[in-house]
Each structure stands twice: as C-alpha cells, then as structure tokens.
Structure to design on (85 residues):
C-alpha cells in the first residue's frame, strides 16, 4: 500500500491556499448553523465534516506559527518553519 502525499490529496492544496482567518470565519459560521438546529440531517453531516477539516487546518496553521516563534526566540531572527512531514 502506498503512502499518500500532499500532492496526492487535492483537499490539502485547497486548504493550503486558505488563510487562517478565512478558515476560522467559515468554521464559526458552520458552528452557528449546526447549533441553530435548522439544517437537515445531511447538511448537518456535511457541515460537520467541513468543520472538522477546517479545524485541522487551523490547528496546523497555529502549530506552524508557534514553531516559527520558537525559532525566533532561540536565534533572535525569524526563520521559516519547514515541515518535515
């Protein structure tokens, strides 16, 4: 079985182009829709799935920025964080 890479996953490239702020705004909107209880079951499930993907994207973005800050504080210069994955 072969490993999937970012290039193999079209969703990964969609999320890479999405800013943290845009993803958070969409996530907050989805949460509001789900909490309202007005969505049909299928739409609720789709919103939940999209929200889960957005949450993962936001968590990764925050982790990357946190790593950059750690690098900055160690060397007193901001260096880009290169994900080794």
């Amino acid at each position: 079985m072969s490993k999937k890479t970012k290039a193999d996953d079209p969703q990964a490239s969609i999320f890479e182009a999405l800013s943290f702020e845009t993803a958070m705004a969409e996530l907050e909107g989805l949460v509001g829709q789900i909490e309202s209880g007005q969505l049909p079951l299928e739409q609720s499930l789709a919103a939940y799935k999209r929200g889960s993907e957005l949450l993962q994207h936001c968590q990764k973005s925050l982790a990357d920025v946190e790593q950059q800050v750690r690098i900055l504080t160690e060397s007193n210069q901001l260096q880009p964080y290169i994900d080794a994955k």
